[in-house]
Amino acid sequence: FSILHDVSGIIKPGRMTLLLGPPGSGKTTLLLTLAGKLAKDLKFSGEVTYNGHTMDEFVPQRSSAYISQHDLHIGEMTVRETLAFSARVQGVGTNYDMLVELSRREKAANIKPDPDIDVYMKAAAMEGDEANVVTEYILKILGLDVCADTMVGDEMIRGISGGQRKRLTTGEMLVGPSKALFMDEISTGLDSSTTYQIVNSLRQSIHILKGTAVISLLQPAPETYDHFDDIILLADGRVVYQGAREHVLEFFELMGFKCPERKGVADFLQEVTSRKDQEQYWANRDEPYTFVTAKEFAEAFQSFHVGRKLSEELAVPFDKSKAHPAALTTKKYGLNKTELFKACSAREALLMKRNSFVYIFKAFQLIFTALVTSTLFLRTHMHKNDNTDAGIFMGAIFFAQTQILFNGFSELSLTIIKLPVFYKQRDLRFFPAWAYAIPSWILKIPIAVIETAIWVVLTYYVMGFDPNFGRFIKHFLVLLGVHQMASGLFKFNAGLGRTMILANTFGTGALVALMVLGGFILPRTTVKKWWIWGYWISPLTYGQNALSVNEFLGHSWSQIVSGGKSLGRTALESRGIFPHAYWYWIGLGALVGYVLLLNFFYTLTLTYLNALGKPQAILSEEALEEKTANITGQAIELSSRGRRSSASGRVAEIQEGANGNSSKGMVLPFQPLAVSFDEIRYSVDMPAEMKAQGINENRLELLKGVSGAFRPGVLTALMGVSGAGKTTLMDVLAGRKTGGYIDGDVRISGYPKNQETFARVSGYCEQADIHSPDVTVHESLIFSAWLRLSSDVDAEKRKMFVEEVMELVELTSLRDALVGLPGV
Predict the structure, then answer these.
(1) Which residue, 313, 412, 441, 755, could crosslink 490 as a Cys pair with Cβ 3.0–4.6 Å?
(2) Domain that includes residue 696, residue range
(3) 681 bridge partner residues
């Protein structure tokens, strides 16, 4: 199935280009193609050039910036920290060279620069700085200065609003030096004034600095639309129009379609190629209307004067000699290796500080387990008289290893959570995989030392191991090696599995294999010959050997037993462990080798593997049929129009049911309820960052005496600019706020709200779409219905109700599609 068909055009510098088209027309694919980020498994023909240079002559990911429609960020970082890191790793590009050249010309012309502009340009040319003046500038332009010190947040952490998150995604690339911007639906979730402000700022930058910008918007307001110089209109993968904004209506009027006076031009362009909306714009009433396909529009455009001029320009190749050599980047990354390592290390240290609760909890968990283990293997009950006693000590050694092993299991989930953001930043050439992997290993060594020390200090002497201090240190070093090996193993499993389900499967499988083949459960002498290789490749084998040799060759086990051998040597031989002191160093060396090897494999997985799943939307059978008909020009019966009519009829019936006639409408009638709220106030403790700026108040008030009412049968729109508090008010009314201070009165049909009852009669659709990705749309709704509907509702009614809801929200055609994850 072809996504794009013979797409040709020229994106000119110093001009703002608006990319329009209905959903599924190929806008994202085109932008990815232009930015050099198209998936390698897609068949591609044609050529994209920058200033006449093909993409193998430079680094397109560094020369251009693709801004995704998916907002992937680390929730534990603040807005300012996110932008500052992005600015730091992307470097300053040609800013320094530009400053040097500008200073030379100013001196030659005897011009004294404006002090403010001079300071800004010099600060913007400083490479590798943790704080950058460009960051503050972009924060101001995007209106993010009000939440600069607020956590970004995610599904589990309260953070900035959806609109602010969308602006942060845009700002993450704007702080870089790229002059070619490809922006994919940056206005989703933003109010029109904020969108206008962003586009206006970009327009000034593009016009002054002669940059290049292609921006995809779904429904731009007229004032935003007027800020663009050129329009690219896509429909069914074809370029219907590309050229100056002033001539687009002229083209469609020649085709027989006219934009009504009170209709926004952008909305007209989105709908005029649609089979269900096109007819209403037909202006030639004297001629019968027939649907004009995207292919027919595209062919007609070739003969239009704008299309002819474009074809003439495309026929003449761009002269490479006219392009400045610094316009395209040939360096793979914005900083040198040392600076990249410093930047990634600083971010990793910050994240460790923000996630300190995890490490504190792990430490207390180890303390508790160590105390319980010490009482289990208390030295007063641990004798050293025969092989049975030796077996108990070996059990204690093996248990210590398994506890350290399990302690490292948390690395798996911590790694998986950050992978989507890593893949995005790796593909944008922010940093190489090694710059991400090595700091996450090196910086956690002190934590590993502390956790291992806690276990050894609390258990070694209490359990009665050899009291020699040198053997105590050797015992500690081996367990530290096991800890580091476990951390590397589970990070490698996370990088290999890439999803929580697969990674946990690999991780638990590795745990079982290591424990069974670790030299204690199955001693070497009892392992079958065909399986002995598993014994030798298990890291726990070397840990068990090293710890056992360290203990049983000590003075505590030196008493002679039958055969003239010491008790310790006899115990080692009975368990298939080589009774030689050098095996301690072999075991410790093997563990160090495994630490290096597993971290190397983890880096390889980060370097070469991509996120599982294909980043493409599901196309329903009806949409595919309509798309094919639009391409071929075949006539089809629009069943989707009938479905929409049916859905509209359902809405009417539901309204009748809500007004008292419960015999009509939804399968399950409901009792209408009115919600009123009076003087709602919500405040949180003043953030430390704001107090540091001189604010003396102890609380930050987010809702200030809000009052209102929602009536049954009346659809109420809650409106406001991004960050105004819409989500906060909804959270408070729905009872979702778990922190902060709430005052005010909320009543349900006149009665004080009881949260436990209210939760059963209300539904709250949050901004964050949290779903099980591996089930279908229908299965998700069925599961939700089973949990939320009363047990009095039988299975048949429950099924009918789900079908009715699916039809109401137009999900019937996607009932068997997997829900998936954002971007996958």
Answers:
(1) 412
(2) 671-768
(3) 743
